[in-house]
Write a structure and sequence with these properties.
Chain lengths: 164, 103
């Protein structure tokens, strides 16, 4: 029951984020969608992932997007349409993809599985798995994050020629 | 409807909403938000299959989501830096106006 409420909150937030006209309102709705998804994770018994979702998405990515919105304030005087020219073709494609996914989920044997007992995933188990079995991927993701953040700063920094 | 099918359906809905936004909106930041929503839908699939799958004690689905969140954070940082750089050069975030490489 609680899961249904959080699922509806998530979908409502996502739809609002994609359909509102104001960019700032979109980001706020996106934050609601991320928080609702974190609550869904907690309901499914994945505490660590739920809290990581709140920390990374609600805490960091949403703030990052707000900063990008503030730094790229569109000062164009003429209000332009915010919908792309090819919206009809895109809409048909999206509906077709969703129909295919829903049909596949409904007819798949995997989704007929009945509920099993809730698996235990304590912090200690996750820490052991990260430090032993998944140690190399963890190091690689650290390297990737460092490289990506240095790259982001290099891209976004003001060039000298332009500053004059 | 089993709980797993409900989770998968929620994920499919989230993916479709994100895809619709990424394809239809003209603002580059909103396109990036749509991509983030699609990544989150994939994460929800991993968690659902970890929760209702055959042997959850292996923690593979959860580990995949943790690494996926890390990669998504890097992607958001680089994408927003690109948008800011684009805005600095041509003073717009409307992706329909970014057509200088059109043949």
């Amino acid at each position: 029951m609680l899961l249904t409420i959080f699922a509806m909150l998530t979908v409502a937030g996502a739809v609002a984020a994609m359909s509102l006209r104001s960019l700032v309102h979109s980001v706020l709705a996106l934050t609601v969608a991320f928080a609702g998804l974190a609550a869904v994770y907690l309901q499914l018994g994945a505490q660590f992932v739920g809290l990581a979702q709140i920390l990374v998405y609600v805490g960091a990515v949403a703030i990052l997007i707000v900063f990008a919105v503030l730094l790229t304030r569109d000062t164009g005087a003429t209000p332009r349409a915010s919908i792309s020219h090819s919206w009809m073709g895109s809409g048909v494609a999206v509906l077709a993809i969703f129909g295919t996914l829903a049909w596949a989920i409904h007819h798949s044997a995997a989704s007929q599985r009945t509920a099993v007992s809730e698996p235990a995933a304590s912090m200690q188990q996750i820490g052991n798995a990260l430090m032993l079995q998944f140690a190399l991927p963890l190091e690689i993701i650290g390297l990737l994050l460092t490289a990506a953040l240095i790259g982001a700063v290099t891209i976004a920094v003001r060039e000298k020629k332009e500053a004059r | 409807m089993t709980p797993l099918a409900n989770c998968l359906l929620l994920s499919a809905l989230l993916f479709s909403v994100g895809l619709a936004g990424a394809l239809m909106r003209r603002n580059a930041i909103l396109v990036l938000i749509g991509i983030e929503l699609m990544l989150n839908a994939a994460n929800l699939n991993f968690i659902a299959f970890w929760r209702y799958g055959p042997n959850p004690e292996a923690l593979t689905g959860m580990m995949f989501v943790i690494f996926s969140i890390g990669v998504a954070a890097a992607e958001a940082a680089v994408g927003l830096a690109l948008i800011i750089s684009l805005y600095r050069h041509i003073k717009t975030t409307n992706i329909d106006e970014v057509d200088s490489m059109r043949g």
